Fold each of these.
Amino acid sequence: ADGFQSLQQILKERSQEWPAGSLIVLISPQKGSSMMQMFQQMSLLQMKPCHIWIHAQGEQVFGTQGVEQMSKPEDYIKAIRSQGYMGYEVSQLSDLPNLLGGAKRYA
């Protein structure tokens, strides 16, 4: 959702509408412990979270606590995956089809 409510508020209000086993894709520049907590909540509700983390290379990323300095971008994705969640890093929109396996290259 793109709006004025936090992800936590949306999850709290709408999670009962989504059946167990639903794949929930979060497309967001947010990262860190607040996002990991969201994934844990979704797992407890038997949902399957996936984070498409959008960021510009070499820039700071906005988290819920303000601006967080990035370590290596892949560290955050590794942390997500180590917990059993799906996560993808996208620094530009043109990377998305290839990242998700949908890009077709013709000679």
Note: Residues 48 and 107 are 37 Å apart (CA to CA).
Amino acid sequence: NVESITKTVLSVTQKCYCSGTVLTLIYGNFILNSVDAIKQTDKEGLVKISTYDEFNFVVIEFRDNGCGIEANILPKIFQPFFTNKENGTGLGLNLAHKIIHQHGGII
């Protein structure tokens, strides 16, 4: 149960050129992953999205209070078709990773 999604925009002076449709796809995937992680806990869900400048980059940070990613699967999460979800495709984080890198970003 997600109780709150908050967004904080701090001073952003850098420019980031990307399609709004593409950003919506990536944001939506991250939020869905957060919701899935929160469902695995007994906590009142919280998703926080922050945007700020750091080292000449625009940083868009997603945080939640879900179960987290187990250390043993962390190296695999960007591989195509890797999923630990019952109905997952394993394409969401792979696609986000590719798009972000195509734009000179880091995930």
Note: The mean pLDDT is 88.
